Amino acid sequence: MDPPPVLPSPQSHLAETCMERERSPPTAELSRDSSVLSGQLPSSSLTDADWFGDEHIQAKRARVETIVRGMCLSPGPLVSGSSRARESSCYPEKARERKRKQSLPMHQGPLKSGPAWDRGPKKGGARVKEQLHLLKQQLRHLQEHVLQATEPRAPVQGPGGTQQRSPLRPKQRNSFLSSPWSTESNPHQSSNKDICGAVEPRTAEVPQQSEEPMLHPSGPRALVETLRKELNRAVSQAVDAVLQQVLLDPPSHLTQPEGSCQGLAAEGGSQLSPPGRSAYKDLLALATLPRRVQPQAGVLLGKSSLATPLDSPKCPVSPRAVPKSYQSPLPNCPLTAEPSHIWENQILSQLLGRGPDGHWSGSPPQASSSQSQTSPESAQQPWVLSQQQLPPSFAPVHLESRPLLPAVKMEQGMLQGMADMVPFSSIHIQEGLSPGHLKKAKLMFFFTRYPSSSLLKAYFPDVQFNRCITSQMIKWFSNFREFYYIQMEKYARQAISDGVTNPKMLTVLRDSEIFRVLNTHYNKGNDFEVPDCFLEIATLTLQEFFRAVSAGKDSDPSWKKPIYKIISKLDSDIPEILKSSNYPQELFRS
DNA sequence: ACAGCTCCTG
DNA sequence: CAGGAGCTGT
Known about the structure:
The chain is mainly α. Helix content is 47%, strand content 0%. It is globular, with a radius of gyration of 25 Å. The structure holds a DNA duplex.
């Protein structure tokens, strides 16, 4: 019972100190978020359940259409990315669908968007064969386009919309390359990681993200080469696999959507054929950046770090004031505003057959195909939906008849080129949230307990946010917090009942029981190295609960609120690597 | 009116 | 983890 000199001051000094230069309390933050949302939605209020259907249909249509067009037209101002934006604005659905059950993002089953080739043929096998052949050819063409777009990228990068205005770039890049979350022994981050020092908070985040593609200073040329090779191979394999499947599949499969159309998150993908997956792995190595750079011996966080939350902070407390730069520069055209690397990754993964829900690992193909998910919708041609499902303007329209969408001015340089030439880019933006997204969100929880919606948008670039998706993700974090606080309270009370009197005795270490619980909850499988900052926050939370309960404050119905407030101010920067849209995939490798 | 939060429930 | 009720702040 001798309180070891662990934390200097268990009181909310940490929080208070940070507050000095910090963001506003959660309430203000909420208001900002609200304004963010309300500022975006009205322009394209897309909340209705109908909208989802339309969106899916349109997405599919646009996708195929763009592919075809990409074949015929020169790599000109094809606007696949903007098409979505335009379409969105075309459907100002006003219905206030507040019932979430109708717009379950996670299980937006039948009309889930996905790769065109993923759409199993249901009827007219011969025709489908033809189309698949065509698609295959188109894919090859597109590969060329991609490559063309990739080549000039390095030089073109600058003038684009996301031009660098922060001198921190190199440093950021370095820190990114090393270990973003391995806070110790990382001199690069010292400036950025100062928890309360008046050092720059997270201002450099946005500029940085557009830099990732340039992380290969050694040879963009070599990268392109490798990329080309792998891309070629992977695409070929993927297409071949699909084609083969289609050609070999007996007619009985016509009623079997082979799971591709369903896209239920619960199904866990399974759209991908084995070749695609293996190829994906190869590409992954190329397209992704080093993760868990250093295991970082962290068995004992030790008093040192805990004892010096202010001196050697491991976690930069991120100000709530998320810069507007998080927002898409082009409200109506968020796609084009994304960093090129994200597109690249998305394209790659898309080419490799990542499922519509972005979740490609999981049950083997047979698993889903054995399941008879022969819903009326799924049995139809993916691109020919029943009229009931479509608004009049889209009823029996085929892709060919779809008007060319006006090219929205998007001088994003090569970004634009990518978006234009690679129709897959639009494919990838999905309305639903996949298990991968959930996993990623959980990992993000290690850094931020109260993410703003704008931050979420920034870190889930492959998600087409709308009201429902945003709410769902917010809800996720709410659930995360709930679990977190419950554990904290539980262990705090336990400590009290164990006779602990000094909150300083309470520390959350990596070998603590509470850590184990939390880790298994948020980081099942230990895919991620839990950042030290989380331990500090957890320690602080635990102590706050301990103190409150000890003081008998729990008699007050709202006794937790002060604690929430404190914790809400202690969010940290999230490693950029988590922003990558393909990051969750990497977690599925195991 | 709405977004976001907590709390409770299944 | 999702739904829903109820609360709060804007």
